[in-house]
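Pipeline run #58 for the internal structure catalog. This entry was flagged by the ingest filter as a single-chain record with no existing model, so it goes straight to prediction. Upstream metadata was stripped on purpose; only the residue string is passed forward. Reviewer on rotation: M.T. Logging verbosity set to normal.
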Amino acid sequence: MSSTLSHFRSRSRDISSPRISPHNSHHSPPPRSPSPPSQTFHPTIPTVPTPALLESVAGGAHYSGIRVDPEGLHKSRRRRSSVQYGPEDINSDHRQILDDLKELYCCRPTREIFERSWRQDAIFEDPLVQCKGYGEYAAQFFAMPKLFSKSETISSRVMSSTNAPNRIIYHQVQKYTFSYLGRTKTVESIIIVDLDEDDKIVRVTDQWNGKELPSWFGSGFLRLLNAKVTPWIVRVPKPAS
């Protein structure tokens, strides 16, 4: 009986105590898989358009008949607020044209200005008139001192000045004071000036608020009529030649 119990206890110890293999006495972790190759990403630096490129695009858009969006130009100017055309960036012929146009818009027209800067067959357009020839376009400017007691340029900024095409595009804010009434009117414009090979004006397009000229039915006839009527009312000095 005692021998049987001893035998049973011996077997119980064998079952409850697992055998430890000498090979498993030092358990090592499983080998790690090799790390994937590292990659370095270099951010792409965007190409920043130069001011000259932006302005030449605007000039090319007008040359091809595409309307320049003033809102887009304003946003562009806000992004490039430090970039402006100074007198040193505009050739002397274009500067003379801008100075003469300022005199005209400030109600100081003279025959010498038209002889110096305008071709006699030039065209002037704004939302009210479509003039062709000296007698019509000069009458518009000689009529201004009769309508306004004062006209001053609040601001003027050249947007584009190119030689091919020979063109100036500038933004202008003009404040007019009506004669007798004393009321004022401020007009913001984008003015497009096309020149010939002798740097004389062949066309001036005055877009009020940067909008295209009116194209509704009958607008063309009314603008032509206004251009014909003004010379009957306002005396225009005859050109020297």
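catalog note: Confidence is low (pLDDT under 50) at residues 14-26, 41-83.
catalog note: The CA atoms of residues 85 and 158 lie 6 Å apart.
status: ready for reviewer M.T.
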